[in-house]
Amino acid sequence: MKVSNSQRWVIPLAISAFHISSTLAASSVGTNPLATEDQRDLDALAIDIYNSNDFPIVKAAARSAYQTAHGFPISSEALAGLDAAIEELTFSAVQKAVNSDPYYPKVYWVDAGPRTWFDLDVPGGRYSYDNPDCIYRTIPISSDVDYVVTGHRYGDGPTDTSFSLISNVNSQNTIAYLGNADLVVTSDGSYTITINSTSTSAPNHIQSKSSAKQLLIRNNIGDWNVEKPDRISVAAVSDVAGRKPITTDTIVASARANLAESTVTYGIGALGLKTYINNVNTLSEPSQSSTLGTLTSQASSFGHFKLSEEEALVATITPGAATYWVFPVTDPWSVTVDPGSSQISLNSKQAVANTNGTYTFVVSITDPGVYNWINTTGRHEGTTMVRWQGLLTASSDNSGVGIYVQVVPISVLNAVLPSETRYVTAKERAAQLAERSQGYSRRLNY
User: Fold this and answer.
1) Number of other CB atoms surrounding residue 5 within 10 Å
2) How is 72-95 classified by DSSP, letter by letter?
3) For strand 205-207 and strand 120-122, is the pairing parallel, antiparallel, or unpaired?
4) Angle CA 342–386–87, to nearest 5
5) Which residues, including other chains, have CB under 8 Å from residue 279's CB and lie 6 or more apart?
6) pTM (two decimals)
7) Of these four, 273, 350, 364, 395, which has the most CB atoms within 10 Å of its CB?
8) Alpha carbons 91 and 125: distance in angstroms, whole number
């Protein structure tokens, strides 16, 4: 570890969150709500630490856990993507560590693909079923500190928004929650959320607990070409004078611990116990949970597929009471592949419904000409986590959501699909993908 690294980053980390957010509040209106000064500084710090530390032992343990979760034998095709998945998992562990000082909190966009901005080449930090619709942002939290989170909504805002107070940045167990239905937004699109240990019935309040470590914010973008994530800033309003900011050495140690915990949480937990435990080409019954990064207002269905080029997995979902849902596929290690250029997912605003209100998707290697096609990006095997959001947090019946899957030869698809299935020409598919690519690229150019 170079001493200069620690010296280089102590000053930016010590800058008052209130000063930064106040400065940006006036300057970032009408610009990209993700491209903030804090984002730039944290990305730069994460890259510096990632490039300066190899974490070889923890990475080796992660590879082993992921392989064990997958089960043996492992095809050469699947193995070809494992190292890249572990590298993204590693960078995600670093990102969690660089924004972990609750006395100098910042808003940080994480769990995203690689990008170039601010003259930085930011590696991908995707892990455990990253959702291409979702803008994930984090704020470090301590129950000893009072916080004010300020938001600004553009138009009608994202399809779904949630604020989850979690007790561990890796297992992400929810201890308090503020959902879209309860968020009070003023007529000018602004809102203010208070976070402290006080119990109150006041709107937009999240009661903190001694176990609180992070506020995990999700903005689920349904229509990529219209919706925009909220602009969000945070201020620690308690007196934090005398609190020294975390050092680079502390961040490196936290990153190493995060990667070790992620190996268990995502390798053994999400990938093994939730995904590969299911029979191939099946999806689990939708269920709700407050652990492993799932929303308390979300039902999820996990599974993995293995298909030949002549086969397709046909899946029909019932939205039930969900206000947002998404059907995605990920690689064998639960990471999205080319979400902007390939139709690896469709959500409640992108897919075409059946006449009875259900939605049917065709997952296949080759394009079957179906509008609701989910592209495996040339892969014969992969994973999926279907999500239904906006449900009651205490629901026991999952509010009517459901899923049914079957594998059929592509040659008999027409006989299996609903009669009203929408088909597309090559020209229409190209237009569909062009619209998707344009919408996905907006997040760097809002």
Assistant:
1) 19
2) SS--HHHHTTHHHHHHHHHHHHHH
3) unpaired
4) 60
5) none
6) 0.92
7) 364
8) 5
Name the maximum alpha-carbon separation found in the chain: 71
Q: Which two tokens stand for residue 421?
A: 């299935």
Handedness of CA 412, 414, 417, 423 (dihedral sign): positive
**Tokens coding 292:** 């492993």
Asked if residues 349 and 133 have their Cβ atoms less than 8 Å apart, the reply is: no
Q: Which residues pair with 117 in a beta bridge?
A: 120
Model pLDDT for residues 382-398, shown as the tens digit of each residue: 999 999 999 987 655 66
Q: Looking at the DSSP assignment, which residues form a beta bridge with residue 423? A: 370
Measured over the CA atoms of residue 39, residue 40, residue 44 and residue 50, the dihedral's sign is positive
| pLDDT < 50 regions, the chain | 1-30
8-state DSSP, 261: H
**Nearby residues of 80 by Cβ (< 8 Å), 6 or more positions away:** none
The helix (H) or strand (E) run that includes residue 40 is helix 37-52
CA atoms within 13 A on the CB side of 326: 22
Q: Which residues pair with 139 in a beta bridge?
A: 215
DSSP secondary structure, 369-385, as one string = SBTTEEE-TT-SEEEEE
Give the domains, in start order, of the chain with CATH numbers: 3-260 (no CATH), 278-444 (2.60.120.1600)
**Encoding tokens for residue 32?**
């990209």
Residue by residue, DSSP assigns 212-229 as --EEEEEEE-SSTTT--P
* Paired tokens of 106: 């910042």
Neighbour count for residue 445 (Cβ, 10 Å)? 9
Cβ neighbours around 95 below 10 Å, total: 29
Q: Report pLDDT digits (tens) over 260-309.
A: 999 999 999 999 999 999 999 999 999 987 666 567 789 999 999 999 99
Which residues, listed in sequence order, are joined to residue 338 by a DSSP beta bridge? none
Tokens describing residue 56: 């070889």
Structural Rg of the chain based on CA atoms: 22
Which amino acid is present at 306? K
Tens digits of residue pLDDT in 166-208: 999 999 999 999 999 999 999 999 999 999 999 999 999 999 9
